[in-house]
Amino acid sequence: PVFNSLSDRLTATFKNLRGKGRLTEADIDGTAREIRRALLDADVAVPVVREFIARVKARSLGSEVSEALNPGQQVVKIVNEELVGILGGQTRELQFAKHPPTIIMLAGLQGAGKTTLAGKLAYRLKNQGHTPMLVACDLQRPNAVNQLQVGGGRAGVPVYAPHPGVSSEAETPTGDPVQVARAGVAEAREKLHDVVIIDTAGRLGVDTELMQQAADIKSAVGAHEVLFVIDAMIGQDAVTTAQSFNEGVDFTGVVLSKLDGDARGGAALSVASVTGKPVMYASTGEGLKDFEVFHPDRMARRILDMGDVLSLIEQAEASWDKAEAAKMAQKFADQEDFTLEDFLAQMQQLKKMGSMKKMLGMMPGAQGMRQQLEQFDESSIGRVEAIIYSMTPHERVAPKIMNGSRRARIAKGSGVHVSEVNQLLERFAQAQKMMKKMAGGGMPQMPGGGAM
Ligand code: GDP
Question: What CATH code is carried by the domain that includes residue 195?
Answer without folding.
Answer: 3.40.50.300
